[in-house]
Amino acid sequence: MHLPFCAGGGGLSPAATGGSGSDSPRKGKAPDCLHHCAPARLLCPRLQATRTASARPASAPRLQRRRSAPAVRAAAAAEPAAAPAGGPGGLSVREERLPGCAMRLHVTVPAEQCRAAYAKLMSDLRKGTTVDGFRKGRAPDTALIAHVGGMSRVVNSVLADMLEPAVAQAMRPYEGVAVPESEHIEQNAEQLEAAFSLDSGMSFSIRFDAVPPLTWKTPYSQLEVTVESAGDKAGDVQAAEEKLLSLRKGQAQLRVVADRGLERGDLAIVDFSASRADTGEELLGAERRSMRLDTDDADRTFLPGIVDILLGMRAGEERVAPLVFPTDEAFQPKTLRGVEAQVKVKMTELFNYDLPELTDEWANSLLPGGGIEGVRQRLVENAAAEREAMMRERVADAFTAAVGRAVEVEIPESLLNELGTQQYSVELNRLLSQGVMDFQAVQQLATPELAAQFVRSRREELLELQRSLLGFDAIADAEGLQPTETEIEAEFKTAAQDFVQQRSEFDAEKLREQVVETLRANKVMDWLTKNCKVNVVPATQP
Question: Where would I find the H helices in 281-435?
Fold first, then answer.
């Protein structure tokens, strides 16, 4: 069962002052997720479609975006290495450890580097700028500075050129220790400008989160999970009959029902919304307009219990009713399991089906030469394959949770926020790909404020998930679970082709990193499935 909703100024350049230089636009960033990848579905969001206009639907996300994934994995249990006393590249770097996983680097840039950066900028300006009263290339510094708007703008441009390489140099000893993209300069633009000096150099500080050390409360090789069965062969036969009925309905004539209320087997057109019973809070993405509900399978494909609410309703009638969402592990999203809700439904139209007769002739139109029995056999085979895929997903979910419970690790806020932002992006894309919302509606929800609200509301779930991610990385390292170049290249070509077909730009390097992440996670899941115990129990009834 799956509920289909859930909840400063720029620097100067020769071009800016009349020269010939220009700033090239940056290549479009690759999205965090590109396509679905089994069996580690829940651990690999980055190869699922999370673009807000993706062609492929995404499932729950499971990997944080990383600029240098191998470095992060290598540092999972490492202590930060102290920077050399003199600092890289002539910098002076002093380390300060902060509470939690945070660290601060106090960086001093020597005066000679400040003067060199200043001289280079003035040389570039002199070559690309014409100042009245002076031959090109011969204007003194004072005239150039006045021409471009004063010393403040010059210093701003020097800082723009100087700080990025200085930060990279200071952070180099911490590759594999710092959480990628968590580093930031603590001073604002005005403070940096005030600190800059051609005579004494300048000082600033960098703050970042360190990858936390990880320990196992339970050895990962001793993990044991219990999952509910996804069915049996008898269930495959029943699913095949339901699919056969659905195929007949696809070719049926619809007839308007005006003289009675809804009965099972009818097709209803409804407007739908849902809110929490305790707070009245509207559920994110729950509202539907003119939604088609086939009452033979709406409890399974949309929302368990919805048909009982609709029974007896006539066209034009509205009804508000309580509904408790199921608690079994097959119900998604997980956060709504067991939630007491109020659903509001308006029946706008009601139809019944005039089904085609179930004959070999009709069956041959679906599977030439197969007849009724041939079609049934094919549908049973498809149902068995779907059941096996569902079991793989349930096992993946169970091991994800088990690894998270077995891991002892402190989670930096930067990792948590990054993962939450990805979760929110995937959720919006799912609403778009399922047709729940159009592109404009999704764009209106894609704001930093709503993403932050999402992270706050899912904090505990995200913490559990991030522990699982770090645990999976540790298993991959310990067991040497690395994809081969052949596997990487094959998956990369498939993922890149998706972008080409959608005419979307992508960063090939980041895409390749994401491919490696997903393939590693798949290998970890395969290892856990083969080496740890999996108990299968009968499914609970909805």
Answer: 298-301, 306-310, 360-364, 371-406, 413-433
Range of the domain at 138: 88-210
Residues 391 and 533 in one domain: yes
pTM: 0.63
> Is 267 in the same domain as 402?
no
User: pLDDT digits over 337-373, tens only?
Assistant: 888 999 999 999 999 999 999 999 999 999 999 899 9
Distance CA 372, CA 379 (A): 11
What's the domain count of the chain? 3
Bridge partners (DSSP) of residue 204 are 107
What DSSP element (H or E) covers 84? none
Residue 130's alpha-carbon distances to 119, 122, 233, 478, in angstroms, are 18, 13, 83, 62
The 10 Å Cβ neighbour count of residue 438 is 10
Distance CA 176, CA 174 (A): 6
**Rounded to the nearest 5°, which phi and psi values hold at 215?**
-130, 160
CB 459 within 8 A of CB 419: no
Give dist(CA 73, CA 64) in Å, integer. 12
The enclosing H or E element of 367 equals none
Is-cis flag, bond preceding 333, omega within 30?
A: yes
Max alpha carbon distance in the chain (Å)?
96
